[in-house]
Amino acid sequence: MHNLTKAFILLVLAPILLTTTTTSAHGSEAHEDKKNQSSYVFKTPVGGSLSLAARRAIQLYDQSKDDVSLSPAQASYIEANIVEHLGGRYLEINEEVTIFVADIENFAEKSKALDAASIAVWQTYAAASDFSLNDLTPVTSPEVKKAEDNNNENTEAKDTENESSKSAESDANALKSRNQNYLLLALTLAVLAFITSRVIRGRNQQEAPVEENVAEKPVKKTTTKTKKTASKSKK
What we know:
Radius of gyration: 51 Å
Strand order of the largest sheet: 1-2
Order of helices and strands: HHEHHEHHH
């Protein structure tokens, strides 16, 4: 029975291997297109493998989607397809491996078309798999990136708010400074006006007696001339 199960899995994987070989010529182009796509990136620990990285990525993807609920059989099907899609190679310790969300979604969609016999085989594979992978944490993931983006947005919003607050405070200080300058200018002008008025009044008071003396002198001369004329007449 065990040998029969292995043979069935090989039969299921044969079309996958053929498809992978056919599309390998376009692998580099697809890789370039996926650089900016959402992905789970893992650093391979001791005893790590493509299967464990793919399995953990599928778990995290399933947990992050409220509208997705993958069965163990579906998860195993997706895992096997991703491993084959990535070449089924061994990984070096600390080697980074990337599992793209687009690949998970693609094979998750295909898993919906599995018939009962295929589901039973993948369920057998799932039963022999270890899904306790909480210690395998991705270096980066869509969830981590989203949290970082939210933090960056919050930081930018706070920075903008602080800049606005500083700008408003600066404007208020500038307005206060201008008002103080205007008040100082008004006081200066008032003092100058007061001093000027006092100076003008003092000058007017000094010039007034001189004008009276000047006005009196002709009268005295006229009187003298009159007296001299009268004395001449008497003679």
